[in-house]
Specification:
alpha+beta, 5 strands
């Protein structure tokens, strides 16, 4: 008796909320780990500061840079787990130097959009 009632409750819930399919345009993931992606550091000595992904080291680690003059984050390597990706991206090449990154951020006014 108990098993039948719990099964009927589950089936009624799934009928109300159909599963999300990959073909739905709203179901696609858009915040990729890529050079130029603006991210918020969530853990460590730089927690709460913004940074930009400059290069991808491997599946778990990336090189980030502030640049230091704007956000106070020096170029260093950190795990992706400690980052919270945002919707903003700057158009920079992989491994861009600090000056290139600074001009790209100013050109697209990304820091103004964030604040």
């Amino acid at each position: 008796w108990l098993k039948l009632s719990s099964v009927s409750q589950r089936s009624s819930r799934s009928a109300q909320n159909p599963p999300v399919r990959a073909s739905d345009p709203g179901a696609m993931f858009t915040r990729f780990v890529e050079p130029g992606r603006l991210a918020l550091i969530t853990y460590g000595p730089c927690a709460g500061k913004m940074c930009t992904i400059v290069d991808i080291v491997d599946q778990k680690r990336v090189v980030v840079d502030g640049p230091e003059a704007i956000t106070g984050v020096r170029r260093h390597m950190m795990p992706v787990k400690r980052l919270s990706l945002t919707d903003f991206t700057a158009k920079i090449p992989r491994g861009a130097r600090e000056k290139t990154l600074r001009t790209a951020l100013e050109k697209d006014e990304i820091m103004k959009k964030w604040s």
